Model the fold of this input.
Amino acid sequence: MQDYGVTAQQAPRVVMRQVHARSLYPAQMLRALSNRRQGIAIPELTSDRLDTWLQRLEEDDMVVHYEPDLKEGWFYVQRRPKKDTDVIRDPRV
Done:
């Protein structure tokens, strides 16, 4: 998986609006993934949820896409072959 300019142990970084940062599930899972990749302990329940979420993304061939100007902010979109190589849509492509 590509790291989008950060170390391979970290999740891709997204600068998000405060309204989108706290309660939305994709944001929570991306924070948990970042912690896991950095070796920071996460609660077992969060780890289980993260595993399920990652498996679902893979099975459905989806990635997370962020649109800061929209109320919802987070969307699941179809993975673009050879462009979206991690769990989040690469906005540079």
